[in-house]
UniProtKB/TrEMBL annotation:
Alphabetized PROSITE patterns for the sequence: GATASE_TYPE_1
Protein name (Swiss-Prot/TrEMBL): Peptidase C26
UniProt source species: Desulfurispirillum indicum (strain ATCC BAA-1389 / DSM 22839 / S5)
Xref: InterPro entries: Class_I_gatase-like, Peptidase_C26, PuuD-like
Single GO cellular component term: cytosol
Pfam families given in the database record: Peptidase_C26 (PF07722)
Signal peptide extent: none
Entry's Gene Ontology molecular function annotations: hydrolase activity, acting on carbon-nitrogen (but not peptide) bonds, in linear amides
Length: 266
């Protein structure tokens, strides 16, 4: 029998329940077990087989720039083939997020930054499969020495900016990328809930997806087995096969890692 890998899912200790339950559903569907990790409920990297760094608060600019942030003190806390599934499931995730999400999305949580930064460093050192979602992708890039755009509003002067939980934004995936391989496509429809984005890629970080405006939508580590960061929220799109595939690829990668470790120790 295939093992059920334990996937740690990070999030805010003061909210983020919609993302947590959505990730838990996606991981369970793909054969894994989700474990919630927060500042108030941390976990040792050795107690999990895979890791999801979830979305939420903005990454603190202090992690990737020496410039002062005047706002930091204030920032406290459809494709037709999928039409039927979208009609059935999309309203569920929309209502779930409305009911469980906090009202202050643009926050800075330095304690969470510290926790997740350490987890990312440990996961990279051990080559533990990792998926970064929205802020998780941004923090992954920062940990690897990259930088972020602190406000993407100016990037949409000529291209209308979408902000939606529904899959209405088209992104182009790089051919031959791990992301394209696990989703089975070079074009994805995704949602958009972010205010920051990746600017300069970190060391050994490859940009593997962009949107029409040129904003980076996904990255992956060139030297690791499975380390991918996506700017959108696939946990709210698990009714789409190409988005579920991302979670299933993560779970499959953890199974492979467990098997390899067992062979080495056995």
């Amino acid at each position: 029998m295939n093992p059920r890998p334990i996937i740690g899912v990070t999030g805010s200790h003061t909210g983020g329940l919609a993302a947590w339950w959505s990730c838990r559903l996606a991981i369970g569907f793909c054969g894994g077990r989700a474990r919630r990790i927060t500042v108030s409920s941390p976990a040792d990297i050795q107690s999990i087989d895979g890791l999801i760094i979830g979305g939420g608060a903005d990454v603190s600019p202090s992690l990737y720039t020496d410039e002062p942030d005047e706002n930091e003190a204030v920032w406290r806390e459809f494709r037709w083939k999928n039409l039927v599934s979208a009609i059935v499931f999309a309203p569920f995730f929309l209502v779930l997020r409305l009911l469980l999400s906090t009202k202050n999305p643009r926050t800075i949580d330095q304690m969470r930054d510290t926790l997740e930064k350490e987890l990312i460093q440990q996961a990279l050192a051990r080559d533990i499969p990792l998926l970064g979602i929205c802020r998780g992708a941004q923090l992954l890039n920062v940990v690897c020495g990259g930088t972020l755009l602190r406000d993407i509003s100016s990037m949409y002067e000529e291209v209308p900016r979408l902000r939606t939980i529904l899959p209405r934004k088209q992104v182009q995936l790089a051919g031959g990328s791990k992301l394209a391989a696990c989703t089975g496509t070079n074009v994805l429809l995704v949602n958009a809930l972010h205010d920051q984005a990746i600017d300069h890629a970190g060391e050994e970080i490859l940009v593997c997806a962009r949107e029409e405006s040129g904003i980076v939508q996904a990255i992956e580590h060139s030297k690791k087995t499975f380390t991918i960061g996506v700017q959108w929220h696939p946990e709210y799109l698990v009714y789409r096969r190409d988005q579920r595939a991302l979670f299933c690829a993560l779970v499959d990668a953890t199974r492979k890692t467990i098997k390899e470790k067992t062979c080495k120790t056995g």
